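Most newcomers find our protein records easier to grasp once they have seen one. Read left to right, the backbone structure tokens trace the chain's path through space. Nothing more is needed to start thinking about how sequence determines fold. An example says more than a description, so a record of this kind follows:
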Amino acid sequence: MQIACPHCHTQNRIDDERIADNPTCGACHKPVFAGAPVAVTAEQFAVLNKQLKHPLVVDCWATWCGPCQAFAPAFASAAEHFAGKATFVKVDTDQEQALANSLRIRSIPTLLVFERGQEQVRQSGAMSSGQFKAWLSDFF
């Protein structure tokens, strides 16, 4: 899969089988899937959801959505706070409509937690950073 590093935005090619090995960016050498949210396509989501051995936290959002934009810093803060315990990804529901439909996204922002490919919980609506971290602490 080709994925942009969330830290320096360099494109990295990562073999699907290496996803669970905590790969690092070829340019900045920081973990690609830890410490910051990663924007993903439907294909990338499918691979991550299948390969990861720790929780996958998903923010379904859109660029035009005010609450989504307001929630983005809380999501980024949680990604940093829970680095190494979960992978945080963002799905742009306008760009990935088929994925949004398959996930049954009816409003945004919608937050989901997956473990080993299975949805564990979902929450519609933005939360404060503290509320979001408390909500996630039940899973890690």
Notes: The first strand starts at residue 2 and ends at 4. The helical segments are 42-51, 66-81, 97-102, 129-136.
